[in-house]
Amino acid sequence: MNDSEDKITTSSSMLVVLEGNSHWNTDSKITVNWDKITVPSDQISLPTQADDQVLEIKKKFLAWAYEVSQIQIDGKTVTEHLKIFEGLSFWWMTLMGEKSPYKCPAIYAVFKLHTLEKLYQHYDCRGIIFNGNDSALGQVLNQWCAEMGHPYKKVPSSSKKTFHFSLNYLFSKLPYLIQACVWFIHRAWTRFRHVSSVHITPEKEMTEITMVTYFPNINREKTEQGRFFSRYWGDLHSLLDKLPFRIRWVWFYFKQNEIDFQETVRLRDVCNETQPEKYKHHLLEEFLSPKSLLLAIRLYSKVYKKGKQLKKLQKNFVLPGSQLNFFPFFKTDWDTSFFGSLARDEALRIALFDSMVLTLPSGTFGMFPSENQGWELGLISAWRRHQKKMTILSFIHSSFRPLDLCILSDSRTHENADSLSLPCPDLWAIGISSCLNLFKESGYPQEKLLPVEALRYLHLMGRFGSEKKDLPQTGRILLVASGMTNQETPAHFEMLVEAAQKSGLDKYAKVIIKPHPAFPLNDFLKNYDLPFSYTLSNESLDSLWPSVDVVYCPNPSSICVEAAWLGVPVIIPSSVNALNLNPLYGLPRLKEVKNSAMLVEKLSNPSLVSIPKDYFFFDQDLTRWKKFLKNR
After folding, report:
1. 523: left (phi over 0), alpha (psi -120 to 50) or beta
2. What is the 3-state secondary structure (H, E, C) of 544-606?
3. Chain centre distance of CA 331
4. Does domain 476-604 have CATH number 3.40.50.12780?
5. pLDDT digits over 344-373, tens only?
6. What is the dotted CATH code of the domain comprising 207-287+361-416+428-458+622-630?
7. Whether the Cβ atoms of residue 384 and residue 423 lie closer than 8 Å to each other
8. pLDDT at residue 535 tops 60
């Protein structure tokens, strides 16, 4: 180490950034940990600091997300450069435009970086030492220091990430164009060969409506009998039975362990044999034709080319008033959006939706369950182009997460009347009062917000606090609901294991583990030595509530909403180095557990969450839905 480097590492004006379990014993102005919540007293947890400022940073990020779409490059805005159809810019379908914290972890990195910048300025630091191995973080900090004219030094951490070779890893290293070809061949073999292109002769005597919905998440028993019943739409199925409409269901299949694609084709055929004059069922894959395939290839090629041309935009990945460019964290998301899996997936979906709308008879209105994902914009755009008289309704079907940025937006997004502004439905149907309020705050046009009954939660109507019971001192039953991702599930169980080792489960006689449908636990638990006995259960929550005393569920899980409504104490861990996506975020008396010591205390003395009694819009007769449908 030379004299200048030695001066850097011992300067009391430096800010030290630690990654993971790194330690730093040399003098510094402040020491912050990039990704740990629980840190020694001489360190600052950046996730904790960011969480304290999350609402302020959220506004800034949403403002940036809108403003970057309007930046002019070579005389055109970003949305104009990425125009793929009249009324549809691909920008809104990229990971940057969609803004989903689930799909784009880089968003949380922006929140932490902005917090780091404020700490740096507050403590009047004059340089950065980075002790870690994250190449994106190192690149951002190095560029930032160069911009400020301050010294920067990287000290590699002794801890290394474990590398696991896999076919997916090998596939990811192939050139993007080869990946796209291999992916389509695989899709053709696993899906397209099992269906035939659909040909429809319009029937004029009865009004048709089109409902595009995720598949499966169905009532299997009813569907096997030919009566398609989706849990996304619940009791609306019964209302549709009574209305004088022919319904076209288009199933948007997603891969999971419940039902494979071939079985889905069989169920479609079973359902099409029952009430064919009233209900028709299609898979989106049926609408692939040589013409739509060529369109998908053209769209992918166009997006690929535009992604190369928009490289100048990368210098604008900076929040207003900041010198800190966070693009290195978005590099993978950029490549995925313009060249990789998202570009090819969305190009094909846009083409399939275009073919679907051209093939199906013109309908009075179209509906779909909404999570503000990119594919929804392709669907809206196709309806807008080809069925101009159709009313389009987007149903916010599930619990609402106040920090889920893909649902929220800067108010200017909805004020912009530009033809390439964010494609929107005619109506957003919303069944949760807090969601309705946040939509209003985000600038959604109020005349387009339609309060409706919360279909997925109607089974809770009249049951507010119905499972509230006196908590026994011993012999309690704990329900552990698992998460749906590789990130949250291990962290969720590790904290419980640590708590059990600290006698946190002494008051509990039984632990029931309920796996998430998208994340089976059999293999996971085989390699996990749990220090307590447990029972795996696939029973419905309704059958479990009467016997459960306390619930322990992951941060983003919607099970906590149901538990809170019924009066069951719920314990929720903090998010795992990610934005807090808990649907109960912001409610009084909600205190998330950050470590095993807090979990031990909560297990011993669990508390109820104070959820408002008007949280859901309820009506057994579906009066709001009925009024909307009858007016069509």
Report:
1. alpha
2. HHHHCCEEECCCCCCHHHHHHHHCCCEECECCCCCCCCCCCCCCCCCCCECCHHHHHHHHHCC
3. 19
4. no
5. 999 999 999 999 999 998 888 999 999 989
6. 3.40.50
7. yes
8. yes
